[in-house]
Amino acid sequence: MENNPVLLTFSGVLTLEQLNRADSYHLKNYLKNLIFIGLIVIPTMFYFTYNTLQNNDNSSPKRSLLIAGGAVLVGAIIGIGVGIRLRNKRVRTTYQQNPLADKEVTYTVTEEGIQLTSEMSQQSIKWDYIIRGQEFSDMFFLFVTDRNAIIVPKIFLKKEEDIVTFRKIVLKKIKKFESKLY
User: Fold this and answer.
1) 101: exposed, middle or buried (C-beta count within 10 Å: 0-12, 13-18, 19+)?
2) 61-97 and 16-57 are packed helices; what angle lies between their axes, rounded to 10 degrees?
3) What is the DSSP letter of 3?
């Protein structure tokens, strides 16, 4: 990418807060599947718990209903709590283990692709290898796999015109791009 004219250059240091926000955007894509699974699993758990209590406990239907409902509710609350804690720990660990976490990265955008440079490394990615892109109110994602993306916080682009320029380049270069401005 050395002989390519530079279209845009910007830099910044990705913070834990930005990584956490990026992860929450990314999780929203998978939340639909989780809700679908929950709509199947929770009623099924309730059904089997209720029937087990009715068949083995000789208790009233009302009591079985309360116990089954309570068990499913407590299980869901515990599951959500554990899931949130594990997610936060995963994001924090990912950030702490990333050798570039507290390093400034310079992004150089050319007709051929995007180059990320820091004091530790240099990575060049051609536009053809970026499978999709997303824009949110505060950042861009450039996905190189379904789960791995180059995160570009808009705060790195110092001027509004740089954001507009970057958006135009990305729209032109990436076949599948969606704007999720909210």
Assistant:
1) middle
2) 160
3) T
Residue pLDDT, tens place only, 65-96: 777 778 878 888 888 888 888 878 877 887 77
User: Would the pTM count as exceeding 0.85?
Assistant: no
| Tokens 């279209």 -> residue | 7
Residues 6+ apart with CB under 8 A from 142: 114, 125, 130, 133, 149, 150, 152, 170, 174
In the block, residue with structure tokens 């704007």? 179
d(CA 49, CA 68): 5
User: What span, in angstroms and rounded, lies between the C-alpha atoms of 18 and 99?
Assistant: 16
Q: Which two tokens stand for residue 134?
A: 């997303």
Q: Which residue has the higher pLDDT, 120 or 54?
A: 120
Q: Give the single-character DSSP code of 2.
A: T
Residue-level pLDDT at 30? 66
Residue 117's pLDDT band, with cuts at 50, 70 and 90, is very high
Report d(CA 143, CA 174) in Å as an integer.
Answer: 10
| DSSP-assigned letters across all residues of 54-112 | HHHH---HHHHHHHHHHHHHHHHHHHHHHHHHHHHHHHHHHHHH-TTTTS-EEEEEESS
The letter for the amino acid at 171 is L
